[in-house]
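Thread title: Can someone regenerate the structure for this chain?

I was given the following input by a collaborator and told the matching structure tokens would be attached. They weren't. Posting the sequence so someone can regenerate them.
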Amino acid sequence: MDHLDANQQPTKVARVVDLVRGMVHDGRLTEGDPLPSTRALAGELGLARGTVTAAYEQLDGEGYVVLRHGAVPRVAATLGALSTAAPPAGAAGLRPGAATAPVPTVRTVPPAALVDLTPGVPAVAAVSARDWRAAWRQAAAQPLVAAYPDPAGEPVLRTQVANHLALSRGFAPDDGRVVVTAGTTEAISLVTESLARRTAAPRVAVENPGYRAGRRAVASAGGAVVPVPVADSGIDLDALRAAHAGERLDAVLVTPSHQYPLGGAMPVAARHELLAWAAAEDVLVLEDDYDSEFRHRGSPLPALAALDGSGVVVHVGSFSKVLDPRLRCGYLVLPAGNTVPDGGAPAGAGIRAARSGRGATVASVTQHALAHLMSTGALRRHVARCRRDYRTKRRMVAETFEGVPGVRVRALDGGLHAVLELEDTPTADLVARLADRGVLVADLQDYAAPGSGLELNGVVLGYAPPSGTELRAALRTIRTELGPAPPS
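Best answer:
Regenerated them for you:
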């Protein structure tokens, strides 16, 4: 959505955005062309520098330009099939650096070009190349050590994770409570394995619909998966208590900050209620805090671990939704006090034993590179850039489907994905038709626990990886497949 004033007239920011868009579309600005600095363009157009900065940030989020700290702004890589419209008024005043733009070559993308909107992947290409290379150089420069690595993880990364949680999630664990894992799924598997040391086939409640890989991790570690329905604000606590009353639960896996996939956020009162119940019933709470860095609306809610006074929460985090899932690196934080309420086998000790039994699963060089990204502020800068980008893309999704009959848009308060709940459109047919047109999305039904009887109709789409122009085109394709727009 372009910036509008009270009379619905484009603001100065919107006019700068339209100016650059127009020059890209008519070919006078092409891939890789440098743009004037914010100061230079502001002087040239007689605008405030902040106006140009805001316009550049919007264009960056839409995928037209690439902004990097300390680098010249440039036109983004291939923008797909762009129309050759007449330039907007005033476009001649913008010069890409000191050079004259070459005669344009209009780039097109074949109709079958693939835009993958399946969820779960961040904007990997948004990572600063300079910061990324510096982190791996520093990691490679570490001295070789003739010893096996600490199964709990490299101390330097555990310290950085503890500092990160203190700044961003409201609790400051001792770094001795931090255990490095090969992502969220291994963390869940480790916890389930630790519970199996106390109880054969521990029963673990999971949200339904919910995180598919989490269910598989529980089952692969010998646990019994117990699906529990979710409400608009997260797991249904009444249904959770009923499941426990039927047959005792050993743990519950929740995504309280941004329920996956439906997107609800558990209110603070419900968080306290869950923790009090878990402490009274000796149930371990696995808090999957998978994308808490990307809260787009409302104030961030405290992590369950920040409210835990009884030592019942295992906090689980990952770098997969922040940087790159191929790193396969995450962490868990052992419960405060490392004990369970009834004085039984210490929960923390069981997890440590499971970790030691498997040995280290994340390469030391990867851990050192991540620690460098965190200690230098590079990760924080990357998250800030992505947050701006995701907010712009979130707005595209909301605007595309606003007011569409039979469509409810969910999960837009945070994260990297959106859910389109559909009243009448058969989902399987829609997913197949979209794939034929080069747009991949996920079927919401796939997130229901098998055999639970839960029936869902909708699609899940991830909006982080594609450029703004790719996303815009893909959303238009989805909108077309949902039926013609009503006459204006």
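The chain has three domains: 12-109, 116-126+386-481, 129-378.
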